[in-house]
Structure formats: C-alpha cells, structure tokens
Write a structure and sequence with these properties.
The chain is of the alpha/beta class. The chain has 15 helices and twelve strands. Helix content is about 45%, strand content about 15%. Strands 2-8-7-6-5-3-4 form a seven-stranded mixed sheet, with helices on both faces. A three-stranded antiparallel sheet has the order 9-12-11, covered by helices on one side. A two-stranded parallel ribbon has the order 1-10.
Length: about 400
Amino acid sequence: MTLFSPLSALMQSIPSSPTLAISEKAKALRHLGHEVIDLSVGEPDVLIPSWIRDVAIQAIAEGEHLYTPVGGTLPLRMALAEAFQAQYHSATTHAHVIVSTGAKQVIHNALSATLEPGDEVIIPAPYWVSYPAMVTLAGGVSRIVTCSAECHFKLTPQALKQAITPKTRWLILNSPSNPTGAVYSAEELQALAQVLLMHPKIWILSDDIYQDLVYAPSIFTSILAVEPRLHERTLSVNGPSKSFSMTGWRIGYGIGPAALIAGMIRLQSHTTSGACCIAQSALWATLRQSEKAKAHTQAMRMLFQERRDVFFEGLKGFSENIMPGGAFYLFADVKSIMDARGMASDLQLASILLEETHVSSVPGTEFGLPGYLRFSYALEIPLLETASTRLRLWAQS
C-alpha cells in the first residue's frame, strides 16, 4: 500500500539538518561513558544574573500569569523604545516595537508579513542556518552571496550591487556574525549603506543579537548609526539570550517602522500571541537596572574574549583561522585537512572528529560555506584547552 506524506510540498522542501546525525552520535558516545566536549551549542554557559532571576521570581509570586498584549507589555515596549532612541537618536515610541517569543520569531514575522511569492532576500554566506529556511517558508527566494575568508566573511559593496535585482526585498545583516564572529566596521557599513540608498525599495534586517559581545579593537556599530536615512526601512532585531544567557526564556524584540511592526503584530496575533509574561518582566529588568546590566555585559565580554584567545591559540596546528571580533564562535578552515585525508565533506570530517576525538562541531555546509567547522567557545577554559589539544593531536597523527 502506498503511503502519502501528510506534509505540504513547501514543508518537504525544507531540509532536515545533517547535524542531527552528529548530535545523535554525541549522545550515544556519552551513553557509552565517553567525555564528549560539545563545541556545537550556540548559547553561553554563564548563569543568568541573580537580580534578573529575582525579578522573575517576584513576578510569579505577585501573580503574573495572564495573557500579555500581542506586541508586548506596554512598560516593556516603552522601555525598549527609550533605550533605542538613546542609542540611535531617533524618534522611537512603543508603536515601533514588537516583543516576540525569541528573536527568531521576530525575523520570521518580518519575512512572513512582507514577502510576496518570488520576492528575493539577500543573505551573505556564511549565514545563520535558519535564515534561508524562514525565507522559503515566507514564500520568498534566498539570494545567497558567498563572502569568502579573503573579505573576512563580510559582504562587500560590489557583491551587494551584483546581488540586487528588481525582485530584491530584504538584505539580512548579522554583526557580530553567527557563525564567523565577523564584525562590520562603521566604514564597511557606510559603504553598504551608499549602495542601499540607491535602491529605496530594499529593506534591511539588522540582526544585532550578539551586539554586547564584541572584543577590542572591534567596536559594535549598526547600519542605522552610520546612515540615519535608512531608519524608515530597517528592522533591528535583538534580545537578551546571548548577553544575559536567557536562551531558554524565549524572549526577543524587533524595532522598526510602525507600519511594519503593526503588520508583524497582526501576524503574531494568529500564531503565538503575546510572549511569556515572566520573561517580559525579566527583560524589562535588564533595561531598568542599566548599571547592573552594563557591569554584567562588560564581565561577559572579558570572559569570552579570554576564552576566544585561548581557543584561537589552541587551534594553531589544527586549522588556519581568522580571529573573530565578536560573538562566541570560531569558524575553522579545514579544507587542507579534508584534502590531505581524502574526505568528501565537512560533515564527514565533523562526524569523524566526534568519533575519534569526542569533540563536537557544526559543519560549515550548514552555514552555506563548505570546508569549515564552527566551534563555540562558550565553555570554561579547561574544557577548551582539552578540546583544542585533542583536535591538534588528531591532526598531527
């Protein structure tokens, strides 16, 4: 008897992640008693500050348990607007803000609310794995622009010009980048902005989720900071998941033109509705206790910069790498290893490394640039030293 899939053609076109097989292998190795060092997870290991947890506990104790407004609680949206206005000197009100169940939902809302079938979204590669899938789900077409190591994995004005077509609707920029840690300078963003000013129908999605994790001499800046004329067609996406370790709290926000935000809220009203009330109270606390928040993020930067430096040095002899300027990832060039050992793909290499060194990574193919492995250094230094030693000894064997 022939069985028919219950899935739509669209859903069947969304590929499953090949790294799921690596994840299952890691679980099996742990079950057998092996010490697997997981450098694949994109979340910090630092505890959420106690003063944020206290606010959440107090909210529960005071009976915060009801549905929230679809776009977010008014005090939180007002606080986010106030902080954004102070940062970018733009007239921002709560009408320019949406609070969602994670930054990922903000991006999905924006694409789903704006794309017509066949509209194109320019995505620089390497890219965060979910960008192309979300474009497809929204009915759009991903126009992938490969950004090689020679340009430090960053989009150039020339490449942007060549990628633009009459169907281009969005450009996605992620700085600092997942998976490379690349940070755009003000000069680089200004050059991109000059191209975008010549194409007034293109919107910009600025994914700033790692903005607090930028290491000297790099400095975080946004395309809005260098070109205020783009405010009317830029959506800034952010949240506390990376800066405050609140990944599992599923809270994020977007700030952009009021008409766009209104459409995104309308869409959200028919999907998740309002985000968790407790998580919103916690996010509000990070804004209202700004001095504590600044001290925490400064400590995070110092901690992760030290980890980055240790891991970068430790991988010398395993791979050739570009020093990441932000986030907590290192995008290791493993093409020479693959060539020397006759490996067909970085997925094969990641699987073998897990099996033989018990170090887990994510293949660059997942991010649109084969021949690389993404390692997260969001672990304690002794574990990073052990992992890099295992990898280095394996490469030399």
